[in-house]
């Protein structure tokens, strides 16, 4: 089976071959023909299975027959995913003079408004920033969105959660109604909210929703090649235990992603480990966009061995070389744990995941073990004696210095001001 057999345009099949993509994956084989026939589509498949091409190939095929205006809008939860999708669209359409605009936070909003006014062929956006344009940039800026033929929700389970609902609602007001566009939802986790969209009554003149879940997308949550371990620690010395884990003989040279739940934790750990001479980069929402891109590039290139990240890095991002995932903080949702540890042990390779478990995390660990149908094993080699002897003093000093620096630099101040503005708690002169 080739991409041409699925109905993909000849020029695009050639582009895929030039990119050394010869055979469609199961999600691509199932979804591309259905989308080309005009079906709305729900596609469920694990990270790394080719979901982007599953929606990009039919959209680009259709677009090339009638290249006009803003043809497709792709919404995704994080800036990094938006940039990654844009890179793939640009690469696939490079021979066809494709115009792609990325509309995400952290970039100049006026420059983005001008880009939207030029009616690029495809817009890849985060809902919050696009909603800002709808609200503030004027009718001329968003007029092109009224003729969108395709709407894609990538990582749909996250986009359909409550945290994005108001921004999505604002975005949907300026694009064609569901009966006048094709809607494509792709996700690694087919939640009840996503599944419910398939069972919604069909609109008159619309084909039924096509849904394809790649088998085992939800049944085998953790690959056999992934080792799942834990250390049980007092929560006030977690950083010292992290230092000890990263210094173990089996991990000291491995590429690692450390996941945390809060941006301030990511920043503290990054600065602390840097003072202890680890090669680290960080990725979180309070960094400027250029800093986030640089961090990812440094990590991918091997200039940084360790990436400290919030859940902006847990899904979809193409980081193929990770050998170790550390959950410094345990996520509240077991599926978030699955997405995090899915950064390693990919494509049959081995990988390790270590969770640092505090006294308040036990219930979360039990929920995760039930979800993944696997019991975590105790990580050997991290003892209290070793922590006291090798890590505690040095880590405590580095952490204290890092927090003092952050306080002097006003880390998080902009976020606090913006929050007060939204709540209307600042006087007009402060705004």
From TrEMBL:
InterPro entries documented for this protein: DEAD/DEAH_box_helicase_dom, DEAD_box_RNA_helicase, Helicase_ATP-bd, Helicase_C-like, P-loop_NTPase, RNA-helicase_DEAD-box_CS, RNA_helicase_DEAD_Q_motif
All residue ranges annotated as the DEAD-box RNA helicase Q domain in the record: 1-29
Annotated segments matching region Disordered: 399-431
Subcellular location, principal: nucleus
Entries under CDD domains matching the protein: DEADc_DDX49, SF2_C_DEAD
PANTHER family: ATP-DEPENDENT RNA HELICASE, ATP-DEPENDENT RNA HELICASE RHLE-RELATED
Record-given protein name: ATP-dependent RNA helicase DBP8
Annotated family: Belongs to the DEAD box helicase family.
Basic and acidic residues biased stretches: 399-415
Annotated signal peptide: none
GO cellular component: cytosol; nucleus
Residue spans of biased composition, Basic residues class: 416-431
Helicase ATP-binding domain sequence ranges: 32-208
Ranges spanned by the short sequence motif Q motif, renumbered to the chain: 1-29
Keyword Nucleotide-binding: yes
